[in-house]
């Protein structure tokens, strides 16, 4: 947030002419900025939003762990071209949605259906017989939407967190192509769906990919990220646009997302969603597409059984973030999930991440990746990470430190998600907004933090009470030796 001093206000205060002239010159070059209030939000190290200085420390991206295949596309209505996954955790139930189509065809063809799978743990999945649509001569299938082309090409649902959402519309979804626009569907249980209205709710895009939407708690509106191109029509780079809505029906004029000073790359999908432990931060684990970067030769492709049109390119997964508005932060240009060992991982449109990160254990979360595309072995694969473990503030054995920009917090105690080596440690110091040490909260008074925990409260002189600093602008200095800090959060009490 920024505060600007208006010249009319200065004049009204009776300043002398020379004082006014001096202030006018000053204000032309200076904007007085207020310290952001992070409240009790959890903060990650996926961007430099609060980072002031780094000395011997760095932001380090962490690689998810491959946990193997979890859903195979062996049903006759699924097949090698199944894609555009969404995974939703609703209470104790995990729901997966994806396009099923056994043969390659044009976008939005009549052979595309939307399939459903569910799980009690996010690891072991079943495909229930839903008996809703006749497909391949039988209603005994896991299809939740059929005969609805082109919506079934890229049907992408979400669990609506809007506190004013109607119970019969707890689940919402968008799907469609440029010809149809994005068509809205709603559901009470995530299994039985109906159109919200006949006409498309949004038409100003190309939409030839998975177009995602969610309710933003921090912005208090629906946000949709959709496929665009940087050039006219289908030219330039595959990229991302954004539009917002208060009611899910009427959408704002779209904006093209920017990437700071980072170069354009083809983003086939972007999979942007609020991180469930820090919903003010939108994480985008997208598919980076490298057209005409051919790894598999013709003979190798024949052995793999790859469709002849789908091995002239390769893809991997990248990590981006946003805090709302028209900009992504690409803190890391390196691959977040690299293609695995074996040529089957190096074909076109493989390694596409599913939408959403879900918790699958007390200390574990999972993301899912579509692999072996256009091959008989096509499947969805699970990758695990520690909670908040996308990236960390990191320093090696020689040590390093990070000092934040000034910020304001709410709460009484500071929690860290961290790990150290046996020889490593972490110390935390709180400073006033000018960088002066605050008595009682210096590095010298901090109890060294050693270990590996998802949640650890910081103590100074056997006290963890920060309540007298709440609401005031402070800086924080973190010293690390052979250690990582994955996140921090100011809690109202030590049990949060």
Task: Briefly say what this structure is.
Helix content is 5%, strand content 40%. With 496 residues, it is mainly beta.
Give the radius of gyration: 25 Å
Shape descriptor reads: globular
Which range best describes the helical content: under 10%, 10-25%, 25-40%, 40-55%, 55-70% or over 70%?
under 10%
Helix and strand content put the structural class at mainly beta
Number of strands: 34
User: What average pLDDT do the residues reach?
Assistant: 93
SS field, number of helical segments: 3
Low-confidence stretches: 1-18, 20-32
The span between the termini is: 27 Å
The quaternary structure here is single chain
Q: Beta-strand level of the residues, as a percent range?
A: 35-45%
Question: Major β-sheet, in short?
Answer: 8 strands, antiparallel
Brief descriptors of the model:
mainly beta, five-stranded antiparallel beta sheet, 496 residues, eight-stranded antiparallel beta sheet
What does this structure look like?
This protein is mainly beta and 496 residues long. The protein contains three helices and 34 strands. It has helices at residues 7-12, 17-29, 298-304; strands at residues 2-3, 32-33, 37-39, 43-44, 51-55, 58-61, 65-72, 83-90, 93-100, 113-119, 125-126, 143-145, 156-159, 171-175, 183-187, 194-195, 212-216, 221-229, 238-245, 255-256, 266-269, 272-275, 278-290, 314-322, 352-353, 358-359, 364-371, 379-386, 391-395, 400-404, 408-409, 413-432, 452-457, 474-491. Strands 4, 5, 6, 29, 30, 32, 33 and 34 form an eight-stranded antiparallel beta sheet that branches. Strands 7, 25, 26, 27 and 28 form a five-stranded antiparallel beta sheet that branches. Strands 8, 9, 10, 11 and 12 form a five-stranded antiparallel beta sheet that branches. Strand 17 (212-216) and strand 18 form a beta hairpin. The radius of gyration is 25 Å and the shape is globular. The two termini are 27 Å apart.
